[in-house]
Amino acid sequence: MDGFTYDPDTHSYALDGAEIPGITRVMRDLGCNPYYRADPVYRARGKAVHQCSMWVNHGEWDRDETDPRIVPYVDGWVRFVADYGYRSVGGEEPVCSRVMRVACTPDDWGPTRLESGLWLIERKSGTIPPLVGVQLAGQAHMLAEDRGLKVEKLAVVCLPGDGSYEVKFFSQAEYHQKYLSMVKFWYAKKEAKLL
Predict the structure, then answer these.
(1) Which of 17, 33, 85, 157 is most exposed by smallest CB count within 10 Å?
(2) What pTM, to 2 d.p., does this model score?
(3) For residue 33, what pLDDT is reported?
């Protein structure tokens, strides 16, 4: 990852000193990310659920130390992990595509007891966004290019906040081309000074 940097405070990426967009920004700038909420309440909840889910993955989650409003979301993740035998081997680590000049920070990846191949998981605390398959396909592409990881399944685990979860799968074949097209179109708009 030489020359690739990430600033967690601003959630911004740079490659060889030049700023590059994240896939979420690409989608938002093109009007394809209607589920993005700038509301700080949603951001704070999502951040807390993500952090607690990572603690669950590492066996470090303390239910008693968690905000009671967050616990039902995390309970959904705990149930998913148990039901599928999910074992996280990575997550919340920035990756990029040098070819496409785009980056992301995937939520989670790892195998399940159902199959040994990697699942790439996007956690959502609320509803499943309509174009999240594009985001996942981009993340899978970047994990392959940046880390040499082959993702077998793209999945969203929706955590509605009632202790349950819903899993929805997306086809890499269907969404990969959409991801490539969106990034190319974003750069075309940027060159034309339309962003």
Answers:
(1) 17
(2) 0.91
(3) 67
